[in-house]
Amino acid sequence: MSIFNSKYLKPFKNIYIVVLAVFVVWMLFFDAHSWLFHHELNSDIYELEYQKEHYKNEMAKDNKAIKELSTDEGIERTARETYYMKKPNEDIYIIEYEDSIAKQKKDE
């Protein structure tokens, strides 16, 4: 039995099947618009959409903070809570609990 008469090579004797197989392999892997290239682009699109949602959420937080700081009460509250500022005629006492101190030391 000859190697060219094998039942496995019989479909490759037809030139149309050979050309079709070469074309499919070329389009899937070697072409400029190949499946691999499109797969990479789709993963980039997914990552960029995730970043887009993240930045939209950050913008919403920032807009909320800007709206809160646009009033005098908001500015005063932020100055008192964050920077421990006070009015000239008052005293500020900072009370820290033991469990909050322990968490701060673990975070550092």
TrEMBL record:
Q: Which Pfam families match?
A: DivIC (PF04977)
Q: Which UniProt keywords apply?
A: Membrane, Transmembrane, Transmembrane helix
Q: Which InterPro entries match?
A: FtsL/DivIC (IPR007060)
Domain of life of the source? Bacteria
Q: Mark the transmembrane ranges.
A: 15-37
Q: What is this protein called?
A: Septum formation initiator
